[in-house]
Amino acid sequence: MLAAKILPFTSPHSKLLVKSNDFAPSFQNTVPLVKFKRNSKITCLKSSLQSIVSPEIDSDSPPAQTRVKILSEALPFIQKFRGKTIVVKYGGAAMKSEALQASVIADIVLLACVGLRIVFVHGGGPEINQWLGRLNIQPNFLNGLRVTDASTMEIVSMVLVGKVNKHLVALINKAGATAVGLSGIDGRLLIARPSPNSSQLGFVGDIATGELAGIGAEKLILLTDVAGILENREDPGSLVKQIDIKGVKKMIEDGKVAGGMIPKVNCCIRSLAQGVRTTSIIDGRLKHSLLLEILTDEGAGTMITG
Ligand SMILES: Nc1ncnc2c1ncn2[C@@H]1O[C@H](COP(=O)(O)OP(=O)(O)O)[C@@H](O)[C@H]1O
Ligand SMILES: CC(=O)N[C@@H](CCC(=O)OP(=O)(O)O)C(=O)O
User: Fold this and answer.
1) Which atom of ligand 1 is nearest to the CA of 92?
2) Entry's Pfam families (predicted)?
């Protein structure tokens, strides 16, 4: 299941990331490594601020006074999280629209520019399914994890490492940061062992625990295509805003949390056990949900606590 060995990028210029994790199929998840040179910070911040105060950016924007007030209200949060490592898992389900991708990337770049150390991990399940479909291979899932035979693994690797990863790296670069994409295989970043259920799941593995604690992550945020954990998954209004480990395990037992949400919840549970302070599952379809989650009191989705 979830797991990974996260190795911090050691360049003195690095501000960001590394990692792969989540449903841990051996090397299925890949990680753009984003580096920010110290001397690029000001330019980067400047362009981010411009995008907040420039009236051309969004015709729905509030007046400039309101915008700068909102910006200044972010200060305590920036001070709190500056220098802290935040792991963001960008689920494939929340990647479907280009506009949303651009919004997520802009948030990542802004957060990095104000000093947060972002570890950006991506998925790409829907895109994998699309390519499997083109090759007439039927996708199969067990408790939210892909049943991965050798030919599926080939496609998974091609899509995640070759396509999705490079696409996200290009978007980050275009947004003014410098990204390097890594997969678990690079530099032995992730060492996986076969999943206990590998006789059914195939090429799916668990990575050595301790990965998030190992990089001292403060927060884990999973972006997906629902508002968060729903009490009733047919009712988008039934968002559970906060829940503890015991409560969420019960939701799995009761069948209320199912499918792709199971590995996400397990990911949060394991991360909390490893010392990550807070974990959240938030709506990647909501514009700037990452900023809402990190830079406001309200948050955006479900917070799972220890
Ligand atoms: N209780 C629940 N609350 C919200 N979503 C749930 C719940 N149980 C199952 N799900 C499903 O989990 C899905 C998210 O997992 P998944 O499709 O794997 O997303 P991603 O590609 O972002 O990893 C949701 O779209 C929803 O269909
Ligand atoms: C879920 C699972 O078994 N593994 C994913 C790996 C990529 C991922 O994490 O993709 P999502 O974020 O879109 O789920 C898959 O093969 O589809």
Assistant:
1) 21
2) AA_kinase (PF00696)
